[in-house]
């Protein structure tokens, strides 16, 4: 079974990389991009029976730094 | 003073740290990240700069989960002294021994130069060799030194006199210009600038000597 974890900077935490991508899109002439936030996707290949709670624990302990990042799990 | 310098794959300031500590009179052991314990009688653990585990996932995140880091956290919880410089600061923040996080520099550039810092407090074994308000010059070399913490933590750090160093001119977007912070018991210091690269005339400056000497002095007495 697979799980996908989306890790994003929390709202209110400045995302300099997203800002740079936003700026570059504007420079390419793509108007109307209001804002850009950049994050990461982590795909996990898991043994059958692994629970979402266990993946949550992985996020809390390692995959996300909850001081600055939030995460969302898709199983 | 007996010191242990932790070595991760990708550490690159470990030997500089050992040289700086030995010059201040410390007995230094190098400790590999897979070791489960620190040598007996260690007073100070130094987590050096570099790019531990290639900065994969987040700077310091993988190192913070290594076997030796559990021993470092235990050492700190027992009241032991710990200094983390640059990547070492990132590792200590990831272990939770110090609050906040080090994010990508606000201008996305790797900053590599010698900067003026203000010593914000002389009330720690690390900074007692300076005067509060004194300006010192240490080199910085990092891509992820942008200190972030929420308002409550920033207020606590300021209120408890735990900001050890600030940048005279903010090079990376750090909140309140924070370059280094102390733990609640003032025995854990994390800072992005490199005092160990300012301990020899050949480095272009010796402002970092006072940090290692005051530490060695305090820990001999202890």
UniProtKB/TrEMBL annotation, chain A:
Purpose of the protein: Part of the phosphoribosylformylglycinamidine synthase complex involved in the purines biosynthetic pathway. Catalyzes the ATP-dependent conversion of formylglycinamide ribonucleotide (FGAR) and glutamine to yield formylglycinamidine ribonucleotide (FGAM) and glutamate. The FGAM synthase complex is composed of three subunits. PurQ produces an ammonia molecule by converting glutamine to glutamate. PurL transfers the ammonia molecule to FGAR to form FGAM in an ATP-dependent manner.
Lineage start: Bacteria, Pseudomonadati, Pseudomonadota, Alphaproteobacteria, Rhodobacterales
GO biological-process terms attached to the record: 'de novo' IMP biosynthetic process
Homology family: Belongs to the PurS family.
Enzyme Commission number(s) of this protein: 6.3.5.3
Organism: Oceanicola granulosus (strain ATCC BAA-861 / DSM 15982 / KCTC 12143 / HTCC2516)
Transmembrane domains' residue ranges: none
Catalysis: reaction(s): N(2)-formyl-N(1)-(5-phospho-beta-D-ribosyl)glycinamide + L-glutamine + ATP + H2O = 2-formamido-N(1)-(5-O-phospho-beta-D-ribosyl)acetamidine + L-glutamate + ADP + phosphate + H(+)
GO molecular function, one term: ATP binding
Cytoplasm found in the keyword field: yes
Pathway as given in its UniProt record: Purine metabolism; IMP biosynthesis via de novo pathway; 5-amino-1-(5-phospho-D-ribosyl)imidazole from N(2)-formyl-N(1)-(5-phospho-D-ribosyl)glycinamide: step 1/2
Cross-referenced SUPFAM superfamilies: PurS-like (SSF82697)
Keywords per UniProt: ATP-binding, Cytoplasm, Ligase, Nucleotide-binding, Purine biosynthesis
Name under which the protein is recorded: Phosphoribosylformylglycinamidine synthase subunit PurS
Keyword Iron: no
InterPro entries found in the cross-reference section: PurS, PurS-like_sf
GO CC list: cytoplasm
Highest taxon above the source species: Bacteria
Pfam hit, one: PurS
EC primary class: ligase
Subunit structure: Part of the FGAM synthase complex composed of 1 PurL, 1 PurQ and 2 PurS subunits.
Localization per Swiss-Prot or TrEMBL: Cytoplasm
TrEMBL record, chain B:
Keywords: ATP-binding, Cytoplasm, Glutamine amidotransferase, Hydrolase, Ligase, Nucleotide-binding, Purine biosynthesis
Any one Gene Ontology molecular-function term assigned to this protein's record: phosphoribosylformylglycinamidine synthase activity
Protein's pathway: Purine metabolism; IMP biosynthesis via de novo pathway; 5-amino-1-(5-phospho-D-ribosyl)imidazole from N(2)-formyl-N(1)-(5-phospho-D-ribosyl)glycinamide: step 1/2
Location of the active site: 86, 194, 196
Any one of the GO BP annotations: 'de novo' IMP biosynthetic process
InterPro entries registered for this protein in UniProt: Class_I_gatase-like (IPR029062), PRibForGlyAmidine_synth_PurQ (IPR010075)
Enzyme Commission code(s) on record: 6.3.5.3, 3.5.1.2
Keyword Cytoplasm among UniProt keywords: yes
Catalytic activity: N(2)-formyl-N(1)-(5-phospho-beta-D-ribosyl)glycinamide + L-glutamine + ATP + H2O = 2-formamido-N(1)-(5-O-phospho-beta-D-ribosyl)acetamidine + L-glutamate + ADP + phosphate + H(+); L-glutamine + H2O = L-glutamate + NH4(+)
Compartments where located: Cytoplasm
Gene Ontology cellular-component annotations: cytoplasm
SUBUNIT field: Part of the FGAM synthase complex composed of 1 PurL, 1 PurQ and 2 PurS subunits.
Listed PANTHER family: PHOSPHORIBOSYLFORMYLGLYCINAMIDINE SYNTHASE SUBUNIT PURQ
Function of the protein: Part of the phosphoribosylformylglycinamidine synthase complex involved in the purines biosynthetic pathway. Catalyzes the ATP-dependent conversion of formylglycinamide ribonucleotide (FGAR) and glutamine to yield formylglycinamidine ribonucleotide (FGAM) and glutamate. The FGAM synthase complex is composed of three subunits. PurQ produces an ammonia molecule by converting glutamine to glutamate. PurL transfers the ammonia molecule to FGAR to form FGAM in an ATP-dependent manner.
Name assigned to this protein: Phosphoribosylformylglycinamidine synthase subunit PurQ
Native source species: Oceanicola granulosus (strain ATCC BAA-861 / DSM 15982 / KCTC 12143 / HTCC2516)
